């Protein structure tokens, strides 16, 4: 759909583009008529006609926008930036105009239920459809779209250095995963944050002004409030749910932080990682310290608990290619009874980084025509992180295809957290037993029950570590948008939120001229991030439901529903709903519950949490 699909990237991507061909400048200047609905006292029939016409116009422009955005992101030049900005301007102007016009109808008595739902989505789904609202003044709308395209491309063209030599962003990410020399890690981390983030600050500051002006013009207090409005509840209720969920899972994070800090202190010594206080951000195997699975070798329990294999090593040993990794992912979905990806997917996707041009390497999934033109865009490396990312992106693609029969305004996830959770939920089924089933792991090397702690710790390093990062990115942005974080405080507030929630500190001193948030893709791309926090919990809810459905009796983390057609059919039932119903209805279809909850995740990790508490006994945890 529209917007978003790609979840992150894709969402944004889609969002960003817009189309011109259909209505051209008449859309941009807001003067195009949607003929129905201009009457003084509109009727429910006028509302039906308005919605039908809105869907027609948005649907057309959206596809054009997708095309421009795809070309821009897979071939960054000044020209494709300009084209993408132009399409984004026109599409966003149309989205904003439709949101405004929807207000004329949404309180009418006697609206058909679908019309009422679509009016709600037109008014409150802008975060998903276009990311930011543009001001009605065409000059300001153009300026906003130009800045958005420039910020995103600046990120795509970003470079770090290693040993004084320039490296691309995808290679910098890989270096952060694999290097173990603190001086080199510090060089890559600092060069990336300085080179990519700092030059964005002026653009970002202006973008916030323009986007807030657009949000206010359509009745929101600011852009952050507009983003929180898209969850079938009030923005205030959403914020309360968000904080409540963090409170539920925080004790588990605190234990993992404490244990990991001890291991890093033992490995590197107190001069690199002190035994107390926050953890140095570049030691955790990820540029943003957002997931720590890549340093499992440093934290693995000695001897008996270790799992004895790494997925990266297995992939490398089999000489697996990036395309074969995508085929492995597809096979999981087809094993559930879902259809194979179309031939065009394999022809049109960008699976590895092209060597001759600038691209956005950050992974995304697309449905260009909102029907079957599915694609992913990745710069895939042969490692376990990217195997999970492949499953993640295909989750978006399978979701997009499942709801492709819905009307335009329903071409979306139940909420954006659902869209992000599907592929990760599937990847939780990548158990040792499953790896043996697909011949990656020798059956004789399947770890026995004595290795469960190691298996759980490996998962926790990716999944539990992510929680506070997933939470804080939009805490920062909501503060930026509502003005409680001023431009002079952009950097200090970011550093402080990372300290407060993650217990992480930068490896080199930062100052007010730095702009570290810009060095994380979703900030320049304006993809909301609360979705990933929700997805981090939802994926365990889906997983537990699927394992229950398949009659699994053992420990939850050993369950794989690979090949289970009953799970596939039920999943498809939820996915095919798209955004046609409020998200609790969709959640109920698959899990039987209507609440997002941290409990299934806590249940999955319960044995590990008890083990961590024992390991941390006598230590002063916290920071
Ligand atoms: O951006 C993504 C996906 C595309 S939607 C690769 N993710 C977040 C990130 O990388 O920061 C997936 C997990 C979190
Ligand atoms: Zn995603």
TrEMBL record:
GO MF terms, alphabetically ordered: metallopeptidase activity; peptidyl-dipeptidase activity
Residues engaged in binding chloride: 231, 531
Keywords from the named record: Disulfide bond, Glycoprotein, Metal-binding, Signal, Zinc
GO biological process: proteolysis
Keyword Glycosyltransferase found: no
Binding residues for Zn(2+) 1: 392, 396, 420
Disulfide bonds listed in the record: 361-379, 547-559
Positions of the catalytic residues: 393 (proton acceptor 2), 393 (proton acceptor 1), 522 (proton donor 1), 522 (proton donor 2)
SUPFAM superfamilies: Metalloproteases ('zincins'), catalytic domain (SSF55486)
Protein name (database record): M2 family metallopeptidase
């Amino acid at each position: 759909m529209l917007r978003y699909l790609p979840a992150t990237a894709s969402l944004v991507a889609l969002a960003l583009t817009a189309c011109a061909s259909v209505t051209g400048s008449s859309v941009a200047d807001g003067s195009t008529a949607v003929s129905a609905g201009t009457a003084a006292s509109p009727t429910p029939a006028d509302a039906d006609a308005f919605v039908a016409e809105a869907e027609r116009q948005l649907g057309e422009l959206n596809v054009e926008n997708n095309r421009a955005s795809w070309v821009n992101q897979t071939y960054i030049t000044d020209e494709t930036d300009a084209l993408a900005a132009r399409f984004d301007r026109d599409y966003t102007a149309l989205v904003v105009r439709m949101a405004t016009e929807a207000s004329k109808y949404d309180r009418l008595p006697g609206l058909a239920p679908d019309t009422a739902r679509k009016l709600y989505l037109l008014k409150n789904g802008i975060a998903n459809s276009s990311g930011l609202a543009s001001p009605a003044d065409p000059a300001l709308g153009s300026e906003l779209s130009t800045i958005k395209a420039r910020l995103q491309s600046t990120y795509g063209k970003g470079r770090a250095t290693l040993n004084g030599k320039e490296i691309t962003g995808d290679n910098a990410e890989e270096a952060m995963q694999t290097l173990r020399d603190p001086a080199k890690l510090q060089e890559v981390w600092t060069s990336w944050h300085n080179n990519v983030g700092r030059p964005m600050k002026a653009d970002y500051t202006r973008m916030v002004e323009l986007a807030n002006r657009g949000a206010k013009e359509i009745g929101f207090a600011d852009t952050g409030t507009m983003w929180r409005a898209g969850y079938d509840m009030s923005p205030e209720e959403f914020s309360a749910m968000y904080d409540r969920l963090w409170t539920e899972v925080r004790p588990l994070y605190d234990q993992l932080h404490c244990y990991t800090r001890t291991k890093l202190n033992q490995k590197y010594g107190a001069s690199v990682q002190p035994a107390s206080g926050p953890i140095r951000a570049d030691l955790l195997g990820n540029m943003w310290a957002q997931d720590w699975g890549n340093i499992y070798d440093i934290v693995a329990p000695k001897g008996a608990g270790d799992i004895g294999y790494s997925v990266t090593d297995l992939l490398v040993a089999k000489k697996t290619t990036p395309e074969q990794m995508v085929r492995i992912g597809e096979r999981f979905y087809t094993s559930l009874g879902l259809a194979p990806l179309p031939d065009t997917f394999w022809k049109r996707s960008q699976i590895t980084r092209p060597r001759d041009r600038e691209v956005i390497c950050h992974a995304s999934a697309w449905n260009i025509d909102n029907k079957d033109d599915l694609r992913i865009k990745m710069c895939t490396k042969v490692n376990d992180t990217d195997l999970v990312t492949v499953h993640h992106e295909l989750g978006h693609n399978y979701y997009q295809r499942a709801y492709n029969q819905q009307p335009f305004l329903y071409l979306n996830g139940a909420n954006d957290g659902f869209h992000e959770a599907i592929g990760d939920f599937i990847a939780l089924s990548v158990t040792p037993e499953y790896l043996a089933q697909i011949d990656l792991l020798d059956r004789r090397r399947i770890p026995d029950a004595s290795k469960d702690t190691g298996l759980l710790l490996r998962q926790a390093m990716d999944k539990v570590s992510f929680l506070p990062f997933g939470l804080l990115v939009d805490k920062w942005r909501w503060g930026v948008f509502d003005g409680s974080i001023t431009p002079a405080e952009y950097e200090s507030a970011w550093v402080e939120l990372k300290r407060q929630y993650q217990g992480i500190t930068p490896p080199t001193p930062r100052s007010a001229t730095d702009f570290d948030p810009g060095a994380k893709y979703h900030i320049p791309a304006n993809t909301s991030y609360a979705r990933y926090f929700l997805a981090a919990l939802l994926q365990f809810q889906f997983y537990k439901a699927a394992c229950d459905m398949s009659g699994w009796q053992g420990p939850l983390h050993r369950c794989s529903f690979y090949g289970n057609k009953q799970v596939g059919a039920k999943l498809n039932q939820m996915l095919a709903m798209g955004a046609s119903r409020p998200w609790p209805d969709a959640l109920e279809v698959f899990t039987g519950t209507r609440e997002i909850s941290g409990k299934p995740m806590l249940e999955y990790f319960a044995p590990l949490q008890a083990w961590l508490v024992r390991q941390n006994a006598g230590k002063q945890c916290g920071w």
